[in-house]
Design goal:
The protein is mainly beta. It has one helix spanning about 10-15, and strands at about 20, 25-40, 40-50, 55-60. It has a 4-stranded antiparallel sheet with strand order 1-2-3-4, with no helix packed on it. The longest helix is centred in the N-terminal third of the chain and has 6 residues, at about 10-15. The mean pLDDT is about 85. This is DUF5679 domain-containing protein.
Length: about 60
């Protein structure tokens, strides 16, 4: 029977960071994401667009620091 459904993508879905790509002009998933801190101590995510490879930043909430 196919009644069992295991969803192991729960943690993978949480790790995905979605940001706005200025080249594609759409929201895209970011690859090679690393958390950085921008000037006034604000946390941000730095990565690349999954489609075109353009560098992307996403400013995160202060609670993510």
């Amino acid at each position: 029977m196919d009644t069992q459904h295991t969803d192991n993508n729960d943690t993978a879905a949480e790790d995905k960071v979605i940001g706005y790509c200025v080249k594609c002009k759409e929201k895209r998933e970011m690859l090679d994401v690393e958390k950085v801190e921008i000037k006034p101590g604000r946390p941000a995510a730095k990565g690349k667009c999954s489609v075109c490879g353009t560098g992307m930043y996403k400013i995160l909430p202060k609670s993510a620091a």
